[in-house]
Amino acid sequence: MSDSKTIAALEIGTGKMQVFLGEIIDGKIMNFVGSGQATSDGIKKADIIDLYKAAAQAQAAIIAAERSTGTSIKGVCLGISGTHIKGFRNVGSANVAGADGIVRREDVERAKNDAKSKSLAEGRTYIHKICCGYHLDGQYCTDPIGRKAEHIDAEYWLVHGDTAKLSDDIHIVQSFGLNVEHMVFSGIASALAVTNAEQKNAGVLVVDIGCGTSDYAYFNKGRIFQTGVVPIGGDHITNDLSFGLRLSRKNSERVKIHCGKAVISEDEKSQKFWSLGDRQIGDKKIPMAAINAIIRARLEELFLILREEVEEFLGEGGIRELVLTGGTSNLDGICELASAVLEIPCSKGKFDSSVRPNLRYQEFSTALGLLEYARNERERDSKKKSGPLGLLGGLFNF
Amino acid sequence: MSKKKLQNSDWRDLIRGAGALKQRSAPVPWRARLRKLWLWIRRLFLLCAIGGLAFGAWYAYRNLYIEEIFSSEAHPIKKIEFKTDGVISPKWLTSYLKLPKKSTFNDVNIFALKNSLESLTQVKSASVERIYPDTLRIVMTEHKPMVKFFAKVDYTDRIYLMSPEGIFFEPICVNAGFVEKLPSLAGASLKFDGSVPQKYEHAAALEEFLAYAQAKGELANWKEVNVSSLANLTMPLLSVKTRNGTQIIFSTKDYIKQFDRLEYILRYSKEKGLNAIERIDLSLKGRADVKYSDYPKK
Predict the structure, then answer these.
(1) Distances (CA, A) of A90 to A119, A229, B3, B52
(2) Best label site of A99, A164, B242, B245, fewest CB within 10 Å?
(3) DSSP code of A74?
(4) Torsion (CA) A139, A143, A149, A155 in degrees, nearest 10
């Protein structure tokens, strides 16, 4: 008998609320079943400023997704972002207890608990506690159990956020009678969708350039090493165009989408673009060079901030590749610009072949990644439950 | 929760939450309200269903003697409750069933009993129930007799009764005097199913005729009803022989007129002292022929 569970991936973004519904079959296979979308309201730079409006829009997206499939969902995998999300590295230590010097599970657990037990400032809450690996007498390894050492260090990347803002996100879901099953930082979710195991082993920096913020996650040796949020997104480019070209936000968005490029050639610099497009009174020609200068300036700022944040990983054995995803990564020439600033090869996110062709858009990477995260967690849970006691427990799992 | 614990809390603590959830009131747009209402309705419905099942179980426990049904210990049958709409008596039934004394519920095969009772030609249907703790209930419906029929089966003269539905049965517990008074059926060409005649096809027509005779008070005087010409396509007739030996011929149409004529003829004959009537033919359209055996010759 196959065991299937429908889960919703909810991305509360600055530009849109995106819900993807996926059916996890036997804890392994993810079957995409439907989606719902609503424009965001009450959110600025990925932070909720009007809880009621944000909740109404998120719930509209959930209902749209439910209606598209005719299924009723109970659990949500919630993707979160915002400038309040921070991370830091912490190392926990333990001496190997056994007389033979062999590292046992208990030694590893002590080191891990030491690393995870770091107290946060008041009003902060942990989102992820990610193990980056271990050091046995100073030597890096990924699986220390069974090896010989005197001292073990567990290295953790701890992601935390503002308690009140996280509560707001949870309230939005819970007020609709749904459970938050997983809370995932959007940068991690996007990285799961657009990178493969090989890239994660080699060292990849994934940047999800969204509407209000850009979330990033750095993977090396198959593990997350660093995450962060840069408070610059596609909205900032739209704002800059609006101020710089004296256009409304609506027209600025149109200009950005239709002729916005991060890098342009010499020939394109002389080209001009009609601001309104209707050639009526008020419509004017805008030089492409001006548009590009504005966009380029903002994107350069973004990549320079990013460079500062990941400076320690740039170089030998560090970041080998930069992958851009998110709606703003659709801008032409953005990869060339990012590559020039960070001095590493850059490409746009590539989706796994299991993702349907009609979903392979950069703006869907977070939602797809959330589904993948939920599938991974479910697979891990089902492995735990596969023992006789686990099966017995499954009988009472309503 | 201590302050230090809160500082080291995980996002899941916000959900389980003693802390954060109580600090802020949840936003509840109308969609969320409707959804919550629907959730509560579903929970209420589930609760009602569970309550209904529990009540059902309790009711069964109180009324159906669950313990007795499922217990290995069987109670002896103390009473046989017998109901019928006919004439079969409990005494005859007891002798027929021959249930051993001190037989228990487990000994009784109610399906076999039912089949045994329904094998009696007089019994239309029978139901046998175990009424816990110690009663066996038998409810029967019987065929009602309309006429009797004499036949010779296996060189033995047998008497059968026929119900208004045309079913023949061997009488059980039917009073001999009552059988004697019933008119006998003659002239019917019947096929036999074993030792019992098969269903008579024209029973409905005969029932209608006899109902008129009963209403006019003539039936008690009739000895035999001959139906040999009843199935005749051109001129269906019914011939009756009274206990005095008079033969009366009826057509199958307009019984009211024919019985009125018969009444008149019998009254006239009685007044005139003409009692030895040999034959009355009421089947003629505009008249009735009467033949007297002792009519004075001129």
Answers:
(1) 11, 19, 21, 58
(2) A99
(3) -
(4) 60
Mean pLDDT value across residues A51-73: 86
Whole-angstrom distance, CA of residue A226 vs CA of residue A156:
10
CB B14 to CB A117 under 8 A?
no
pLDDT per position as a tens digit, A316-332: 888 999 999 999 999 99
Asked if A119 lies within 8 A of B24 by C-beta distance, the reply is: no
Token pair for A134: 């271990």
The answer to whether the Cβ–Cβ distance between A183 and B11 falls below 8 Å is yes
pLDDT tens digits, residue range A334-364? 999 999 999 999 999 999 888 888 888 999 9
**Domains of chain B: which residue ranges?**
74-142, 147-292
Is the separation of the CB atoms in A77 and A7 below 8 Å? yes
What does the alpha-carbon distance between residue B109 and residue A276 come to, in Å, rounded to a whole number?
Answer: 94
Domains and CATH numbers, chain A: 86-162 (3.30.1490.110), 196-348 (3.30.420.40)
User: What is B147-292's CATH topology?
Assistant: Rossmann fold (3.40.50)
CB atoms inside a 10 Å sphere around CB B118: 14
Per-residue pLDDT tens for B37-93? Answer: 888 999 999 999 999 999 999 888 777 665 655 655 667 777 888 899 988 988 888
Q: What is the DSSP string of A222-260?
A: TEEEEEEEES--HHHHHHHHHHHHT--HHHHHHHHHHH-
For the question of an ipTM over 0.85, the answer is no
User: Two tokens at A294?
Assistant: 């504005």
Which of A124, A167, A176 has the CB atom closest to B24's CB atom? A167
Question: Nearest CA to B10 among A170, A232, A269, A235?
Answer: A170
Does residue A390 sit in helix, strand or coil? helix
A230 and A213 in contact (C-beta within 8 Å)? yes
| pTM flag (> 0.90) | no
Torsions phi, psi for A239 (to 5 deg): -60, -45
Cβ–Cβ pairs < 8 A, chains A and B? 83
Within 13 Å, how many C-alpha atoms sit on residue B149's CB side? 28
Q: What mean pLDDT value characterizes chain B?
A: 83
**End-to-end alpha carbon distance in chain B:** 135
B273 touches chain A (CB under 8 A): no
Torsion angle of alpha carbons A242, A245, A248, A253, nearest 10°?
-60
Buried b (16+ CB within 10 A) or exposed e, B6-26: bbbbbbebbbebebbbeeeeb
Q: Check pLDDT > 90 for residue B112.
A: no
In the three-class reduction of DSSP (H, G, I as helix; E, B as strand; rest coil), residue B14 is classed as helix
Question: What number does CATH give the domain B74-142?
Answer: 3.10.20.310
Decide: residue B164, CB within 10 A, 0-12 exposed, 13-18 middle, 19+ buried: middle
